[in-house]
Design brief:
The structure is a homodimer.
Chain A (H helix, E strand, L loop, with lengths): L2 H10 L14 E10 L3 H10 L6 E5 L22 E5 L2 E6 L10 E7 L2 H9 L5 H5 L5 E7 L9 E9 L1 H12 L10 E2 L26 E6 L3 H9 L4 E4 L5 E6 L3 H4 L5
Chain lengths: 263, 263
Amino acid sequence: MHPSQELRAAIRGGRFDKPTSGKAPGYVQANLVIVPQAHAFDFLLFCQRNQKPCPLLEVVEAGQREAKRLAPGSDLSRDIPRYRVFRDGSMTEERTDVSDLWRNDFVSFLLGCSFSFEKPLLDAGLEIRNLTCGVNVPMYRTAIPTRPAGAFSGPLVVSMRPFTPEQAIKAALVTGKLPEVHGAPIHQGDPGAIGIRAIDRPEYGDPVPIRAGEIPVFWACGVTPQEALLNAKLPLAITHAPGHMFVSDIREEELPFFHYSVR
Amino acid sequence: MHPSQELRAAIRGGRFDKPTSGKAPGYVQANLVIVPQAHAFDFLLFCQRNQKPCPLLEVVEAGQREAKRLAPGSDLSRDIPRYRVFRDGSMTEERTDVSDLWRNDFVSFLLGCSFSFEKPLLDAGLEIRNLTCGVNVPMYRTAIPTRPAGAFSGPLVVSMRPFTPEQAIKAALVTGKLPEVHGAPIHQGDPGAIGIRAIDRPEYGDPVPIRAGEIPVFWACGVTPQEALLNAKLPLAITHAPGHMFVSDIREEELPFFHYSVR
């Protein structure tokens, strides 16, 4: 049994409802967005047009709850430690199980997550400040618009990690090889240049110190589709709660080949 | 004016209706598939699940005929030298203009084309046999199934170029860097291993000689979605005619950044 399968079994059994960072190490984790079928084409198109923040790994069609490629035997209505329920553009509740809310017209989207590039960055000898500080990564709303699709639009959200200029080059090379999990940074240096007003007050997550000689480096972030979801004001939609991800059976090493295998 | 814009103007004006290979060199060319909106989610999902044969560059929504990102000012109902019209799963006619068939519920899909990796292969000092012979590239139906989505399913179609084993390694490295236009080969050597019965009788295009010491090398091919379209038996669908591509204003050098820019 994969450690990822054990973790999903614990989640489904009600024995684990915490953030998944560092759990089942080496297995790809994913963001989840569930929308009714009437909005599924537009959301799929939103992902296609905004691949930096929305790197789509798998789409599970209406009538199904199993992510067959990422995790055979999974149940998307029960296998995530914490869900968020959105009604008419507001987050109305968090739950550990949405099986009683499930509708046959739900379409589920699983998107790559930056957790999968943390180990390659650490392996390259880089420090990840929020890990050192033991806090959530800081995330900011930018002035860069996403490319709209139907009801979905809104600002690009970015995560930030501080590095020296030399380390930032290394970090760009390492993450640039992983487009399935946001890829290379989208900006480095002046936060104001992308519309960030206060680097010490992130809109999501926690602030981290930027030391002398360091610059902030910004990556497209998987919170972006949640902003688009708020703007879209669907009657009902469901996501994972930030940090409480879907844990797949795919090894991180397989990511570069995930979309490029034909068997 | 870009050479690509001049070529599209000539096509629209009825002054060019030939294959586009070698025309407007350096500009990305694309496969076109047009389906009614009722089938658009399924076809978009088919592309998402089969990125090797169906590397999606742009989707043009219902009510629009302009590929805004690939070619501002373009008209997908008139800017392709030759179209194919499919009715109930049969190809019923070829035309040079489909503006009188256009419906407001048409959704257009533009997919990367292997024409864009020919120049990088030539630049790497490799010979492309079908170019040397002045014929169309040979294409084969394989026994590898695509991942189905809704009504769309069918076999993977591959294109073939012969190389020595050493050249084949070089060709894999060159094309592996271009996933937007089918990427690395999916097979090399024994045609029977992927269900090809007669290497001298391709299902599409023309046969080419394989010389002593050479092996056939196979790439996922943009004809694959046309096979899926035949299987889907939609009442109406439109594609380009093979070799008669949509010519965009995007430079081939920009391809690696096309999906990974956020501005």
